[in-house]
Structures are given as C-alpha cells and as structure tokens.
Amino acid sequence: MNIYPNPTHDILNIQLSQPESVQQIDVYTVSGKLVKSEKHITQTVHQINLGTMGRGLYIIRIITDSGIITRKVNKL
Fold first, then answer.
1. Is the pLDDT of residue 9 over 90?
2. Structural domains in the chain, sorted by start
3. HEC profile for the chain?
4. What's the alpha-carbon Rg for the chain, to the nearest Å?
5. CA atoms in the 13 A half-sphere facing the CB of 28
6. How far is the C-alpha of 17 from the C-alpha of 76, rounded, in Å?
7. Does residue 53 contact residue 35 with C-beta atoms inside 8 Å?
8. What's the CA dihedral at 15, 19, 25, 30 to 10 degrees?
9. Residue 22's pLDDT band (boundaries 50, 70, 90)?
10. Do 14 and 50 touch, CB atoms closer than 8 A?
11. What pLDDT does residue 72 have?
12. Are 30 and 58 in contact (CB under 8 A)?
C-alpha cells in the first residue's frame, strides 16, 4: 500500500495492492474525531479529497479483510 502525496494540500491517493479486500477507509483527526468515511473501495488507486479540512495531522485507517492499516497524513 502506498499513500501519497504526504504531506498533501487536497487530494490524497491511496494505492492498494488488492482493492477487493478493502472494506472501508476512515479519516480521523489526531483527537480521534471521525471526519470522513468511505466504503466499497473497488479502485486500485482511491482518491480522498481533504481540501475542505483544516491544516494539521490526520490518521487514515484502512479496514481490509486481513486487518487494519493505520497511517498518519499531514494536511498543509
């Protein structure tokens, strides 16, 4: 899995090795507030628009059939 660009201004690309195994992608603030959630991911490269969100650090949680992947993303 590859998440780019990081840091980002607006569009965040999440490149998945097996999109059929991804159930959900959640975006949280560092304080734990859920600010975006997307389900039914079928693309190999999925885009999330962070343009309306404020600057700062966000946590991306990707729920797959084999487990949960967590990454930090810096929004400029």
1. yes
2. 2-75 (2.60.40.1930)
3. CEEECCCECCEEEEECCCHHHEEEEEEEECCCCEEEEEECCCCCEEEEECCCCCCEEEEEEEEECCEEEEEEEEEC
4. 12
5. 12
6. 27
7. yes
8. -40
9. confident
10. no
11. 97
12. yes
* pTM for the predicted model, two decimal places: 0.90
- Residue 59 burial by CB count (10 A; 0-12/13-18/19+): exposed, middle or buried? middle
Query: Count of CB atoms within 10 A of residue 35's CB?
Result: 14
Strand partners, 68: 63
The dihedral built from the CA positions of residue 16, 39, 10 and 8, taken in this order, carries a sign that is negative
> Which residue's structure tokens are 């993303």?
73
